[in-house]
Amino acid sequence: MASAPPAPAPAHTAGPSLVDTLFQRSLDDLVKSLRADPSAAGESAAVARALSEIHREIRTPDAATKAVALQKLTYLSSLHFAPVASHPLAFPAIELLASPSLPHKRLAYLAASLSLHPASLSLLPLATHQLHKDLSPSASTATAHRHVSALALQLLGSPAAATAPDLAVHLAHDLVPHLSRGSPRAIAAAARVIAGSPSAAVPILFKPLAACLASPDPRASTAAAAAFCDLSAPPADAAPFLPLAPDLYNLLTTSRSNWALIKVLKLFARLAPLESRLAGRIVDPICQLLTHSSAMSLTFECIRTVLTALPAHDGAVRLAIGKAKELLAAADDPNLRYLGLLALGMLGPAYAMTVNDCRDVIAQSLGDADTNIRREALYLMRGMIDENNIVAIAAMLVSHAAKSDPEFANDVLGAVLAVCGRNVYELVADFDWYASLLADMARTLHCAQGDEIGRQLVDVGLRVRDARPELVSSARSLLIDPALLGNHFLFPVLSAAAWISGEYVDFTKDPLELVEALLQPRTSLLPMSVRAVYIHAVFKVLTFCFSVYVEKLGDSSKEVDVVFNELVIDQTVRGESKVALGSAEEQDIRASTVRKDPFSHASILYMINLIKTTVGPLVECNEVEVQERARSLIGFVHLIRDIQELNERKVADDDKQSRVNELVKTMRTIFCQELGPVSVIAQMKVASPEGLDLNENLAELTDIVSEDDTAPSTSIFFYPRSRDSVQTRDEPALSIGLSSLSEHRKRHGLFYLPTGKTEDEPSDYPHANDTLPSCSNETVSDDELKTVEPVFAGKKSKATKSRPKVVKLDGEDFLSSMIATTNILKEDPLSGALRGVLSGRDAKTSSAQRASDVNSEGMLNKMGTNESSSQQIENLGNHPTSSSRTSTQQNRDKKKGTNPPESDVKELRKHRSSGRSGHRQGKHKHRERSSTQPDIPPQAPVIQDFLL
Amino acid sequence: MIQAVMVISTQAKPRLLKFYNFQSPEKHQDIVRGVFQLLSARPDSVSNFVEVDGIFGPGTKMVYKHLATLYFVFVFDSSENELAMLDLIQVFVETLDKCFKNVCELDIVFNFNKLHTILDEMILGGQVIETSSEQIMKSVEEIGRLEKQSSTTSLIPKSISDRFSR
């Protein structure tokens, strides 16, 4: 039967033949044929064959054949992802919905609920009538009717149908009798319909749904609680559900169903932040549940509710923390441990100490086999870090990263970098430690955080003077390790290390070794951009060595003719070079090290030869950056070639020596100016030059320009080219540059601004490099720089070392303004509809003009017509009206024509005192309500009366 | 609400897929693949929860149970309790076990419609409507009886009535 005879072509077009019907394959046959050849190709062939067969069968007038075809198609589209678009599934399904045979009907409903597509919704009106019929009471037996209506409800709750507004409009009324019977199915379907098309469904369905909440049938109340929980879920606004609080409270205290309690707790967790008095009211019942419940799901929900919604109730929080720790201690159940960590993660900073108590358990969880547990543990660890324990925890985390799998290792490293770098290293007090930690992180196996580590290395170098010696030695350790050169993740780190070694060469203990490291053969593995940095670093180191050497030469020639070409350590000379170095720390180490003098003539010659052999070939390099730097380096070496002769001829040629001196000194001054961090808003501080009206012709560019300027970057911007060129530092050259600049600007007018940025800077904004060398923070900080130290002064008592200055640009206000999120309140259609509809206007106008005078008082009004919660309304008569209320009221006055006199408050109170027990006396209340209705109370008092 | 219920075999074949939030059919295959990748990467004896923001949107989690050759997966959002969902999987599996008398993967492969019937008795539109496996069993049996009644009065090929007889 698997191979049904292929129908002849004419029959195919004319429709299914009798043979097809007789030998139709059932779904079981289809499944068997699909399983016959499990290979992907075999399966797709079988699917294709089945589809063509179904295509034929589904057009038959015979209902039975059609039903089987539909069933097969549903199966294929659901589990074999058969493209249904070419086989319109919806139409035959809707045809069969009307079948008198229950199996056919079921098939049709299943097909429709599984595969109705918003695109096929145009077909849905065809089904509306059938759904209406199936939902209405029929002549058939009670059980049959129940099943048929269950099918219809199922379809109404299916994702595609729930979004069809027409369906909601036409069928919402049919749902009402089912809701008043308290059918969980109808409640669930109503929730979907309301969520899908609030404006149409809320006026009809909300009241009966709210009534279910107070139903004596636990199935109905549970389903209703679940429905409201779903409707109030973010991003929806929970405020319109506040008036349900009394019924929910009732459920909370009386329900025995864990499902219902969980949903009620979730609802309260959303409502409590909206109404301050609610928390005090629910805290006791929740604590009772917490202590007495044996169900873990309920316990966890209580913990979550307390920790997220009742943070002010210390007793409850302590109880919840205790329970959370119990979860954490569940050795054999990873689920509970995970949830325990999750619960601790909900604790605010006020309870940081409590989390700290569990540090050992959490640290242990970092090594758990479960990625969930590890991630939560890391999150907690991250939150635990403060300025006192940062050294211990960061070191622990980094050592942990070394043992973890690559992905988690990088999560850990990323977390450490983020925490330490937060807000310009506010937690880091000991930057020597941090510099070596950064180097350690870079060396961690699997480290893929090179970009951030490199950025922070440079950033610390720029911002923290005191950290530079340690940074340089960390950089050295990274540079001399040939193994690191093969790891492409570390290229940014190596680039930063090379830059640091070049920029802060004064702190280098051994420039010769540094040059060797920077020029080692494996540097050919580096990308060109990094090689360029390496070569430039060599340039700086070389300049530094020359200047020390030349200085030494000058000094010594004045005194004695000391022999320079000896490779021994000459203490007197060394002493002088130390002065040049100017670092006290350097001195100690230098004195203790016995190594050849890097500033001796031999060393200089060696360096020059090394550079000539290794950098020489790069002059021909294809990459311009590398080529340019190689050329400038080689050119410099060539310029001062005379230096080689200085020693041999001793003091013979004064002319040459002075020329070399001159050259070396000039080069040295180029590099000895300190680079500072650049403010991200530096461009804003540039005053526009006279005669340039930025707003006139560039109006259309404002967007682009402002975007550029405020880009929230924490990184530092370098303009490497400007550092290279001597002109930017040279005063006369600068002025020449400026004059030509303004000429150029005159000629090119409009196009100038974007490219003119960097050239503008030196004139108006104090150059970043100028700000620091003077180093008196007072002068620096008054305008564009702020040093942030005092903040920490108080806390530093424990730290053995005082925290060095950290240069911080861009005041907090700026940063916070960057962070400030545009918290646009989205107009939520559901709550909008709830409010609009419930404020007494009829359904049509409500959907059109709600929103403006949104007020949840409408909700109360609505609740007033609801038996279960009617009594809350009654005492509300005379409360002061809010401003928004007046508009609502006027609105209503117009509509109703009359404004009934306000009810007698006392009478109402009396009524209320009869309590909840009387709340089912229908008619009397209804009358009462109709009189109170027009006086719509603001929401707060309702809760108050209930709560107090 | 519950966003989806899936049963996926350890061979990455979907055995039951039901989405309660609309997912375009073209994406179903990718979703199954993504979920299976997450599941198969997890060793045994670790927690049963996985965050699936990447597949089902922010705040969604998935809870699963690995039984024999099948993964039973429920995807849910912040309106559901994690452990309650784990219990619900248990209810579902228990019900299957009762309906099929020691359920195995083949039962699930060959009973596409019945599986949906059971699931629909338990969850509607992403809301849990019944949590007692006895009650679900009862309803499913009743449906079976009703269909039998109905099918005896109509002319239906034997293959179909067979399938609904149990």
Automatic annotation (TrEMBL), chain A:
Where is this chain's protein located in or outside the cell?
A: Endomembrane system
Please report the stretch or stretches of sequence annotated as the Clathrin/coatomer adaptor adaptin-like N-terminal domain.
50-542
Chain ranges passing through the membrane:
none
Give the principal location in a single coarse category. Answer: membrane
The question of whether Protease is a record keyword is answered with no
Has keyword Acetylation?
no
Amino acid composition bias (Basic residues), ranges on this chain: 908-928
- Keywords, A to Z? Membrane, Protein transport, Repeat, Transport
Pfam families attached to this UniProt entry: Adaptin_N (PF01602)
Outline the segment boundaries, as ranges, of region: Disordered. Answer: 753-780, 840-948
Which processes are annotated in GO (biological process)?
Answer: Golgi to vacuole transport; protein targeting to vacuole
Q: Spell out the Polar residues composition-biased ranges.
A: 845-855, 863-880
GO terms for cellular component: AP-3 adaptor complex; endosome membrane
User: PANTHER family of this UniProt entry?
Assistant: AP-3 COMPLEX SUBUNIT DELTA-1, DELTA ADAPTIN-RELATED
Homology family: Belongs to the adaptor complexes large subunit family.
Q: What is this protein called?
A: AP-3 complex subunit delta
Q: What is the lineage of its organism?
A: Eukaryota, Viridiplantae, Streptophyta, Embryophyta, Tracheophyta
Automatic annotation (TrEMBL), chain B:
Entry's Gene Ontology cellular component terms: endomembrane system; membrane coat
Mind listing the GO biological process terms from this record? Answer: intracellular protein transport; vesicle-mediated transport
Q: What is its main location?
A: membrane
Swiss-Prot/TrEMBL keywords:
Membrane, Protein transport, Transport
Domain AP complex mu/sigma subunit residue range list: 1-146
The superkingdom of the source organism is Eukaryota
Tell me the compartments it is located in. Endomembrane system
- Please give the InterPro entries that the UniProt record associates with this protein: AP_complex_ssu, AP_mu_sigma_su, Clathrin_sm-chain_CS, Longin-like_dom_sf
Q: Which family does it belong to?
A: Belongs to the adaptor complexes small subunit family.
Protein name per its UniProtKB record = AP complex subunit sigma
What is the scientific name of the source organism? Dichanthelium oligosanthes
